[in-house]
């Protein structure tokens, strides 16, 4: 049988052809406009068959490969075809049971690498990255107290558990085990450890060191010991506080916190210019950090505020107000500011009424009456 008019019969070329992409049966060869619409396909050899009429074989255009890469791989002893590709100086292995599946996986792997969907493996250790995150990303931006909390969580709970595991090898199960070990502590502590883990690995993801955040879906363990609930003081506790404050040298400081809702660090840095007895109000614009002893702004923007002064504090404040407007309202000799804060609030440990064991807000609030 003769070939239809307009067709040319040619023998296969002697050179090796790229892999076939698809087989299309047509009466005529594709026009040049077809190739323009789909530049990924180009006409290959044509061969006439009596039963199938005209078969035209198309081939997919692939990136230029070396002669070694262009050789067809052989099946390994395990029954798989394997092909290695190099991207940015690193080799990636692709395996498949069939040649067709192997070439498909190769093309997909190249596409994902060039699109940045696959990130070359880094040899960064997880423990080293935790220290780098703490020093380079948190220390310049967080307060000293928060920095100490991060450092304690990393050095005591996170870094020892990760050991010398590479950052890219850390799995969610590894981090969940770290979090489960915090069940012997309070629920607040476990929540802080989880927040630290999420922040550490989220920064690693943003840096391009890992594809995803393994700490994103961690769940808090059930604490073994019951948590303490915050409550307001009772009327009896308020009576005891005022009774001790009547004769104690720090009584005005405590009453100012009680009636004006001030934090200890906010009350201890008040100056004479912050008190306006004519309008009966005080201004809060700074606070003392107990860990470092530094005076800085309040914890939030809402911390800068103006508070009305109750009538029962007016006489005490007028008697204690220094003459200089820049002088501190609460002072003592020989020590720094935070010493008074520690003595009156943090040092008392025993459950006393505060009458015979010195004065302590913590002692009074913990008393059992």
TrEMBL record:
Biological process (GO) annotations held by this record are: DNA integration; DNA recombination
Q: What sequence ranges are listed for the domain Core-binding (CB)?
A: 124-205
Metal-binding is among the record's keywords: no
Q: What is the protein name stated in its UniProt record?
A: Tyr recombinase domain-containing protein
Extract the PROSITE patterns matched here. CB, TYR_RECOMBINASE
> Can you tell which superkingdom this protein's organism belongs to?
Bacteria
What keywords is this UniProt entry annotated with? DNA integration, DNA recombination, DNA-binding
